[in-house]
Design goal:
alpha/beta, Aspartate Aminotransferase, domain 1, Aspartate Aminotransferase, domain 2, 5-stranded mixed β-sheet, 16 strands, globular
Amino acid sequence: MGDEKSAPTRVEQQRLRALPSVSSLIQHPAIAPYAREVGARSLTRLAQLVLEEARQAILAGRATGDVVAVLQRKLQKLSQPRLRSVINATGVIIHTNLGRAPVSDEAARAMAEVAGRYTALEIELESGRRGGRMSELSQLLSLLTGAEAGLVVNNNAAAVLLVLSTFCAGRAVLVSRSQAVEIGGGFRIPDVLRQSGARLVEVGTTNRTYVRDYSEAISDDTAAILSVHWSNFRIIGFTVQPELGELAELAHARGLLLIEDLGSGALLDTAAYGLAHEPTVQEAIAAGADLVCFSGDKLLGGPQAGIIVGRRELIDQVERHPLARALRADKTALAGTAVTLRHYLRGEAIEKIPVWRMIATPLAALEARCQTWQSALRDLVETEIVATDATVGGGSLPGETLPSRALALGAEAIAEVVPGLTVEELARRLRTGQPPVVGRVEADRLLLDARTVLPEQDEALVEALRRSLAIS
C-alpha cells in the first residue's frame, strides 16, 4: 500500500484547476498563429503534452512556469529548422560540432540540383541500360590517387567496417597496440573489428611496434594487417612505428592484405602551408596498401562520405558485399564528392574548397579583414585585434596550429555598451541570433577568429554583433 499515490492536496487541486483547457490554450493569441506552421492536429497534440507535463510537475510539487510561454517556445523550435547556416568564428577549421567541412559553392549547387530533380544515378543515358553509380567517382579517384578503383559510402567508419566485413570476418587482423584507438563519437577500432566479425590481435607495445612484432603474430588464421593513422592524438618521445611500405612488403610476402585507415583524406601536402606533413592517400597507395579508407568531409573538403580506394578486384568484392547497400552514400553526397574531386583534378582546390582556402589564407589578409570589422563597429564598441592560433580540427593534425587574427571584445568594453552584459551572455546572444555566430571565450574576452569566417560572411558577422549589442 505504501506505493500508492496520495490524493492531490487542496493547493495542488487549485493549481490543477487553474490550468487552461486544451482548446483555450491553442486559441490563445500567442499560440493560434502556429496552427498554420505545424498544423491543427500537431498543435493540439503538443498542447496536450505541455499540459500533461504541467500536471505532473504540480503533483510532484514543482513549479510549472507559464504554460503559454512553454508551448510557444516549443512551437518556435519546431517551426524553425534546427540545422541552420552558422558563422564559424571559433578558429577550428574542420569543426565537427558545426558540420565539419563546408563544401565549395559548386559542390553545394550540384548537391542541390540532384536533390531537387531526377538524376541519372544508375542508368547509362546513351544505352538506356542500368549502370553503376560509382563509375564516375571510381575514375576520378583512380586519377587522383593512383589506385585502380574507388568506392564511396556514407562515412569513413562505414568504409572501415565494410572492408573488414568483406575480407576479415571470422579471421584475425593484426593492429599495433598504439593504433587500437578511439576517435570522436566513441568510434573505437576494436569495436569496429568486433562488429565486422574479425578478431583483433594487438601487436607491439603502446609506444614501440616493430615489423617483427607483426611477423611473429601472423598465423594461418590471419587475414590482414590494419594500419590506423593517429588522427586525433600523437605519441612522442621513445617511439617506433614501421613504415607503411615495410608492412606492405611483409603482408604481401605472407599472402595478407594491408588495409590503411587514413582518416583525414589529405590529397595535398599540408607541409606546404606551414603545418606538419599529413600522410596523403597517394602516398599510402604508392607504399603498397591494398585498400585505403578515408573521410570525404575532413581535409578532402567535400560532403560527408567514406571513401575506399585500392586494387580493382578488391573494390569489386567490397561493392558486392551485402553491407555495401546499407552503407552506400546517397545521390547528393555522390554529386558533391564528384565536384570536390574535380577541383583537385583541375588544380583549383586551394581557390575553391573552403577548408584549403582557410588553411592557405595569408596572415596579412586575416589582419585586414579584422581591421574592416573593427572599423565597422568603431561607433558602437571598443575592440582589439589580437594574435591567436587556429587549428585544423576534425581529428586532423593534432597539436598543429596556424597563426591567425581575431577580433576581441573585452568584458569592460561590452559592459560600456550594455550595462550588465557579460562576455558569456554576448556569446550566447550571438549563438542564438540570426545568423548564429559561434566564437570562443578566453580570458574574459570574446574572440572572433577571422581564419574560419568565410569572406562572404563578413558583413553578416558585423551586423550580428551590432544586433547582439543593441539588445537591452
